[in-house]
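tool=predict chain=A
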Amino acid sequence: MTQSSPIEPFNEPEVAIADYRQQAREFLHKSHQYLADGDLHQASEKGWGAAAWMAKAVAEANGWEYERHPQFNVVLNNARRATADARLLGLAGIANDLHGNFYTRRRFLDPESIALSLGQMELLLNILEPLTEVSTT
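tool=predict ok
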C-alpha cells in the first residue's frame, strides 16, 4: 500500500500562506547554491521562483488573484499601492528578468548581474513578507 500526500483544506489560508513563504525562502537559498555551482539558468529561475512564491503568499493573504504568470505584476502593483514602496516597481522587473534568463543562452548570462539580482530578491521578499499576515479582525 502506498502512502498518499495529505490534502490541504481549502478553508485554511494560513497553511497555504506559510507554505508559500517557506518555499519562497527555500528557492532563494537554493538560487545562491546554484549560483555558487555556476548553474546560472537554475540560479536565475530559483530567484524568480522565490519572488513568485512570496507573491502567491501575499495574494492569498489579501484575497488577490494569482493563478497565472502575468498576474505576478498585478500582485506586485497591488503590493506597491498597499505599502507605498515604489521600489517594488523595479524589483518586479528584476524578478521578471531573472525568469527571462532561463531562456537565454548561457554565453549571454552574467554571474555578477545574477548575483546582484538575487540580492534584490532578498529585498523583495523582505518587503512583501509583512503583507502575508492574515488579519484576524
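The mean pLDDT is 93. The two ends are 44 Å apart (CA to CA).
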